[in-house]
Each structure stands twice: as structure tokens, then as C-alpha cells.
User: Fold this.
Amino acid sequence: MEGLAIIFATGAGLYLLLMPLVAYLRSGKAVRESELLRAELRILRDRLAALERTGIAPAAPIAQEPVVEAVEAPAAEPVVAALAAEPENAPAPNLKPQVRSPEPAKGDTLEEKIALVWFTRAGALAMLVGVAYFFKYAIDNAWIGPLGRVALGAGLGVAVLAAAEIARARTREIYIHVLSGVGLAMLYLSAYASHAFYDLVGTTPAFGAVFVITLLGGALSVRHRAEAVLILTLLAGCAAPVLLSTGEDRPAALFGYLFILGAGGLAVSVAMNFQIAAWVAIGGPSALFTGWYGKYFEVSEGSTYEPLSARAPALVAVAAFTAQWLAAYEAARRRRTLQPVALAVAGFLLLHLGLTALLYDKPVLLGVVLTATAVVATLVMQREKRTELLALPLAASFAALYGVSRVSHVRSPPWLLSLFGLWAGIYTVAFLREQSQRSSKPTPATAGMAWLACAALAAFGLLSWSLLGDDHLAVFTLVLALLSLAYAGLGVFFGLSAIALAAVALSLLAQVATEPSGGDHKLIWIAALWWLAYFGPGAWELLTKEIVPQRLLTVSAAGLGFILLAFRQTGDGDSLLRASLVAVVGVADLLVGARLLRVERRSGSVLLGQALALFAGAIALLLSGASITLVWAAMAAVVAVLAAREKDQLWLAGALALFVAVLVRLVGIDFQSVDARNAQWFATAG
Assistant:
């Protein structure tokens, strides 16, 4: 009974496969005859209409002759007969062809879809299931030997492919595609079974057979323009190294095979514009590379891949795959097929992953290679005018470098730090160059380029911290100061004052969080450089460009931030140094505020008021006791006189605030100090 069921299933599969083809071929003759009749009828109607317009009544034989001969005679004979029956002296009829609207294309009917698509698929599935059960039944009953089984499967595969070729000119493409897929699947199964099931051939011949079948599948996909066939071929080709694996680590052979497989798949996909197959040709080899890496690659003392020379095959494979993907990008760009930019971006991202996986214990070499990759990616994206897409390789390389710098022990941080700076500079310059080619007016695109450039510099700052840490705190603070200068320059270049303001806040927080409180005066000088990096460009913009609140806040916050950082590195015994630093900031604010007062009074008053407060603070640090109160009172009086003469309400408010401070100090500190001294004098009897 089981044998009968298998035979029935196989027969049903063949029936469902062949009957739609037979029915379609038999219906073709009827369709052509009906189209012939429609054409003859259309010609007769046009001819009759032309005769009626000229006033000539058609002879009786003319109306009957096409009806009798329409089926057997060609379409032109009725027209010839009609022309022969016309009188010689009859006026020539108007034979100008009438313009007809094109008939809408008729889609497949429900019957055609059921017969050619669903029955075909059901037949292919039933046939595969039947063949599989037949093989199983034959194996269980020892009807056919191992060699016969493989030969039978290969013969059936070849027969199905031959049937597809024979029916190619007379049937639908979907049917040919299904037949080709079934035939290739049978060939793949036979090649695999010859080695894995029956051990008839070794690994190398079986692998060679799979490779040949893969080439055949690629050729068939081109001949039939069948993307599904190419996808099936690529998937089967990628499965071959897994199914026919010997368990030995042979990276050169594996990567060479994958390179050829991917090159063929991409070449066909670019030529035929196969969207899905192109990504299968990229993703399949990448997935197998990942599997090889997880199974065989290990870097430890005494392991196979500890020396760099042992990684040469894998590194060459990564470079070769990237070159292959960029070649596909170039070909797709020339032929205007696929998505060239997406291919290039995917190639760069996979290159970052591969290099990081193979060189995670070699941070200097990884930094050099990723820097070179940044140059190539920049050139490609600028060529495509899609510089914003550099954010993707920027993020990938930052993640790689940050992880490597955290887990590896590098003996030469200055060298690696310079390399990181070059890497960030390449991306930053790319964004700046893109902006220089656009309009100088602020636009959303301008803001996007600006913040991407800021992200590149921020990535360098984080990499510096991960590399230097607490061991090189002064160097890290110097890096922050230089980054601050760069951020101020970006704000000026892009015309976005918010960049400098945000950089002031973030870099100040970073220094406060990383720098310990103490007496390291070198950090004070570095903090002064940080202050000047924001104060100089900000003051220049205030005096030469439109005054906006962000620029004013940047100048003000930079000075106050410098004082905070300086106080963290000085103690109570450094009153003179503290007073001097506060006074220097006050003088800078005074000079800029006085110059700004001529341009915009309110903004100038803000900086002058801050300068006045800083001078008051410097005096409080330098003097002691009632002397501070007296100097503050004198300053309040001078400010009040100036406010009255200039009739400036802001200055008047500043004078009032200073008088309040004098009053608070007089009552809260000076009077209590006098009372304390009097009590001490009486307690000690003078």
C-alpha cells in the first residue's frame, strides 16, 4: 500500500505539472484563430464604413465572401475580393485610417492564474514530495543501489531542465521558472547525497559538482530572467560549505569559493537588475564568514591565529570582498540598476565589522586601516553628493575604536591619540567641505552637516578619554581645550552659535567630572586655553556680526567656567592667584563690553555688569574685613553716578544690587566681627 501511495503521489505531481502546459498549448490554437477572426471582422467593418461614406452600396458577394472564407483564408483575401468588385469609374473612397484608442492590456484570467500558477506550484511540490518518498521507499526496500539512486536523481533533474528549455518558447515564464528550480534542486540533492549519504565520492568532487550546478543555475537565471532561480542557486551555493564540511579549517579555500560565488551573483544581479538576489550575494558570504569566525578564529597565547601572519587569508578576504562590493557599486552606477549608494554603504559597514573582528588586539593597526577606510568612504559619498551618509561608517568606526581602546593595553597612547585625531579630522573636513559647496544661509541641511561635524569631534573626545583616562589627565584636559577651539570655529563657520554654547556646557561638565580637586597649576593654564578658545571667537562674532543671545551667553559662560575650574585647582592660601585670575576675566569682559556698548547697549551692559561683579569678587579675595565693604560701596556709588548720567536702567539696577551686597556684608559680617572683637577685648582685659 505504501508503494502504491508513493506511485500515486508521483503520478499526481507529474499530472499537475504537465496538464497545465498541455492545456495551455492546446488553447493557443483556438486563441490564435479567434484573434484572426477579430482582425478580419475589423477590416471588413472599416471597409464597409468607407464605402457607405462614398455612397456606393457593396455588392452582395462582398458581404458573403468574408463569412465563408474567414476561417480558412488569410486576412487579406476578403479585402482583395472587395476591391475587385468595385466599378472602375467609381470615385476613390476615403481610406484614411481611423485613429483608435489602444485597447487596455488584458491581465491573466482567474482560470489562467489557477492553471499556470497555483497548479504549477502544487504540482512542483507534489512531484518533489513524491520523488523524495520514492527515494526513501526504494532505499528501504533496496530496489535501487546507491549509484542508481544518485544517477536517477541527477537524470530526473536534467530531464526537468530539458523540459523547461523545450517548453520555453511556448509557455509562460512562471512555469519555466518553477521547472528550472525543481531541476536544480534535484541536481543539488543528488550531488549532496553522493557524498553525505552514500560516500560514493569524496568532498572535493562533490564540492566541484555543486560549484558546476551553481554556475548552471546562474546561467539559467540569465537566460530566463528568473531572479528566483538565482536566489535558489545562491542559497544552495552558500549551503554547500556547511553541508559538505570536513570539519577542517581551510580559510583560503572557503573564502576563495565564497568570493567566486558572490562575484557571479552580483554580476548577474547588476546586469539583470535583480534587487533581492544582490543582497543575497552579499549577505550569504558574510554570514558564512561570521560562522567561520565564531568556530575557528581565536586569539590567545599559543593559538593558531595569535600571529598576525596567520590572519592574512582572512584579512585578504575582507579586502577582496570589499573590493567586490565596490566594483558592484560602480557597475550598478554605470548601468543605473539596483541601488549603488546602498551597496557602497553596506560594503563599508561590513568592512568595519570584519577588520574589527580580526584586529581587535592590534589597536594601532586597526586605527590605521580604519583611517584609510574613512578616506575612501569620504571620496565615494562626496562623489554621490550624499555626505550625510558618512554618519554610518563614522558610527561604526567609533564603536570599533572605542571598544578596542577600552579592552587593549596600548604602550604608546600619544601615537594612537594622533591617529584618532587624524581619523576624526577626515570626517570633520568632509562635512565642512560639503557645507562650503552649499548656500551660506543657514538651512536644515547646514545644521545637519554642522552637528555631524560636532559628532565627529565628540567621538574623538570620547576616544581620548577611553585611551588616556586618569593616567594622563593633563593631556586629556589639553585635548578638551583644543576641541573647544575647534567647536568655536565650527560655530563661526556654520553660523550656528548654539554649537559653541553647547560645547561650553558639555566640555565644562567633562572637566569638572574628570579633574580631581587639588593644586595642579598646569590644569589652570590648560583651563585658560579652554576659556580663550570660546571667548576669542565669541567676542569677535559679537563685535562683527549680528548679536544673538547664544553668542553673548557663550562669552559670559566661558569666563565663569574658567573661574570655576581655576578655583578647583587652588586652595584657600592662593587668594592672590585667585584674585588675579578673576580680575583678568573681568578686564576681558570690560573691554568687550565697552566696545559692544557702542553697537548694542543692552548686550554691552550685560558684559559690563559681569565685569563689575568679577571686580567685586577679586577685591573680596584680595582684601579682608571692612576694607571689602568700603571698596564695594565706592564701586556702587560710581556705578550709580554713571547710571544717572546715562539714564540706563540696567546700570541703575546693578548699582542697587551692589548697594544691597554692601548692606548685607555690613550687617551680616562687619558688625558681627566688631562685636566679636569687643567681646574678646573685654574677655582678655585688653
User: Anything to note?
Assistant: Confidence is low (pLDDT under 50) at residues 61-107.
